Give the backbone structure.
Amino acid sequence: MLRVKQGDDKAFAELIAEFQDRVVGILFHMVGNADEAEDLAQEVFLRVYRSRDSYEPTAKFSTWLFTIVNNLARNAIRDRKRRRDRIGRVQPSPNSEGATIDRVAVAPSGAMPSRIFARQEMAELVRAAVAQLSEDQRLAMMLHRFEHMNYKQIADVMDKSEAAIKSLLARARVVLRDILEPFVQPDASYRPAADTDLPGEE
């Protein structure tokens, strides 16, 4: 980013290549819509470029970048809620895109929730479960698990205390465990070789 600040456009292209997929992934989990996530990602990098002259390396670049991501995602969700309130009708929730937990649980075989999920089905179930978290829980979980940020870095991104981040992550793990446990518990007659770790469990 310091090279970008000095006018190195090649360095900016390198930043986009390094972070674009990660930014889109976080935005998708925040806003629940792939096209909107792509549009917001473009706005994120546009803001990065516009801010190049004033950039100061007071924190890790990724912390500064995901602060922009967080602000844009929250603005998008807030604007969507305002539009929904204005038109006075119920719209899908910000994370309604894709399968719901109940839908994933019975598709494609129609089996009961206690059946053992294949890898792809489990991934879909986890995505649906993550969508049930609050905005703050979801972002904290994504930054911790996929960006490997520590409590302080997440606190900087979300403008919260480290204690608040610890609490968010603890509550998120409880929510995910409560949601997923009924779907990953094996039948009484089945004994797996090892227990399946739930997302967010250390």
About this structure: Residues 174 and 186 are 20 Å apart (CA to CA). The chain has nine helices and no strands.
